[in-house]
Amino acid sequence: MTVFAFYMFAAFVIASGAMTILSRNPVHSVLWLILAFFNAAGLMVLVGAEFLAMLLIVVYVGAVAVLFLFVVMMLNIDFAEMRAGFMKNAPLGLAVAVILLAELVLGIGAYRAGRLELGTPTGDAAPIAGASNIENIGALLYGKYVFLFEAAGIILLVAMIGAIVLTHRERRATRGHQNIAKQNARRPDEATVNVKPEYGQGVEL
Amino acid sequence: MDYAASFALIAPELVLTISGLVLLLVAAWGGDKASRMISIAAAVSLGGAFALAAPAVCTGATGLDTMAFGDLFRADAYANLAKLMIFAAAGAVLVVAPRFFTGIGEMRAEYPILVVFAALGMSIMVSATNLLTLYIGLELNSLAAYVLAAFLRDDERSAEAGLKYFVLGALASGILLFGMSLVYGFAGTTNFMGIAEAVQGDLSTGMLFGLIFMLAGLAFKISAAPFHMWTPDVYEGAPTPTTMFFASAPKVAAVALLARVMMEGFGTQVDAWRQVVIAAALLSIIIGALGAIGQTNIKRLLAFSSINNVGFILIGLAAATVTGISAMLVYLAIYVVMTVGSFVAVLLMRDAEGNQVEGISDLAGLSTTRPALAAVMAMLMFSLAGIPPLFGFWGKFVVFEAVVQADMLALAAIGIAASVIGAFYYIKVVKIMYFDEPAGTITGEGDTPHWALLFICAAIVSPLGYLLTPWLGELADGAAASLMLPA
Lengths: 205, 487
Hints:
The complex is a heterodimer. Chain A is mostly helical. Among the domains of chain A are: 1-75, Up-down Bundle (Four Helix Bundle (Hemerythrin (Met), subunit A)), CATH 1.20.120; 134-169. Chain A contains nine helices and no strands. The longest helix of chain A is centred in the middle third of the chain and has 28 residues, at 86-113. Chain B is globular, with a radius of gyration of 21 Å. Chain B starts with a helix and ends with a helix. Chain B contains 20 helices and two strands. Chain B has one domain. Chain B has a two-stranded antiparallel ribbon. Chain B is mostly helical. Chain B: It is an enzyme of class 7 (translocase). Chain B: It is found in: Cell membrane; Endomembrane system; Membrane.
């Protein structure tokens, strides 16, 4: 039963992953991506990482993918233009595809030649006996890897500073603001000046 | 895990983090008016980090006492020597940046803060003994760098530089991550020493794939050929102080990181990566030299010059011995000084209104209009070309000496021959300055901080620099020994 579930989830992940890049409509691509996330979550449940599986659905499907969908819908893509130039670039694209395929075949061959031995983690990496997924992740994230966790926080801060630096503009007044008190306080001798320009000279204000 | 000991070891990083966060708050409330004060404070905090990193270099710290947070971070003499160069280069950027950005009315308080965070990322990079630390440090540095490149957002070239750097940097990070995941998959650990244990004996094909992908990703970051295409465009488009930063500090960090991954993680598999490093080194030297010939913009020229220099630095790594790593560090130190000096000289190229001038043709006849600037620039160019009485020659000398000692005569011969091609365009700049009719565009006055920085660089690059060689050599030897020692 587990084996059947594994192959089903795995096949769906691959198929929907392929459809993500194959479908011509970007909105469909995002939808296929969501399906891929769901099936990946299923795979995680099978290996006993149920917390990560839930996180994947909540964070990726719930937030990231929906955000993608919004962005894609706002992009206003011209489909006729997208198809133009396809034949011109086809040989190059084909060459890249052949190279990637060759690499994949090599990669699989390498894997078959000397396959991984997935043992039980020992030492530092050993799971806490009897603790749940969340406790194990927490122990690693806030214990062993706390330095990296904090450093990742700074990365996010830098990304935020960057986004603000590059997009935020001081709001400059497009029209002069009317200050009624100042207008009322204005006196004729401040507003008008009497000048006697020399002949042929300009007036300097 | 002993947190107190770990925190003591990451003291330079803590200083940078805390000062970066505090200065960010100052910037939020003080606005751009506070940017001058923030620049000074950021430079002071970089100086503090420099002072904290220095003792470990002098004592040649090594061994298990330098490990922080388990196996994630290592503050040995090697990492700290690289940190000294990084902090010094970042500090130099903060000295020249305010004048440049104020001159065009674009100074904002975030610039020095981003420089501090980029320096923090780089210092994490050079201390990384784990693939995760490596990646986090690299991304922290890169993200700050993308923003620094696009900092003049109203300038089309700066925005283009930022975008190009971002797209290619993200691609390089992806390639690097792919390689890292393969290495992790086949080694079963992300720790460099664990990887070293796992790769003893024959290297599996998957591991080799991972190694090559990691090399390619890191070659992007140090702009070694054939992954150098972004360099001229980004260096030309980015604001000049940012270009100065890119050409100095991140190069040190990425080269030091590359050397640590290769020597600590794959130290037993030298033959697997040496040929890649040699190919990248020779290609960089040749492409850097040939590409520079037709350039008309001084920043593009210096970009090709940096590609060329990375080639020589990689030759030191290709030796894969203590002498080779030590030579690489010596070359890096001299390279940072020469690069900072050259870019300060470029920043001093101003027309009568104080605007920056970047064309090589504008340099014509500089020896009659601005003799001091022309003399220093000529010295820096000769030094970059590696012409003997100047200090740049020493870097090339130690690198080639190390390669010859490692019985790689062919590499040394090709490298020396290619460095002659490089000399051509450096000398061409000198010829334009000294023998062409004055163009008369560069008439603006410089200011004291620029001149002070330029004369420090010029003094080190001048034959006086040879007084430093015993001391520099000793520090580099200690640092290289701390890297090679199996913890």
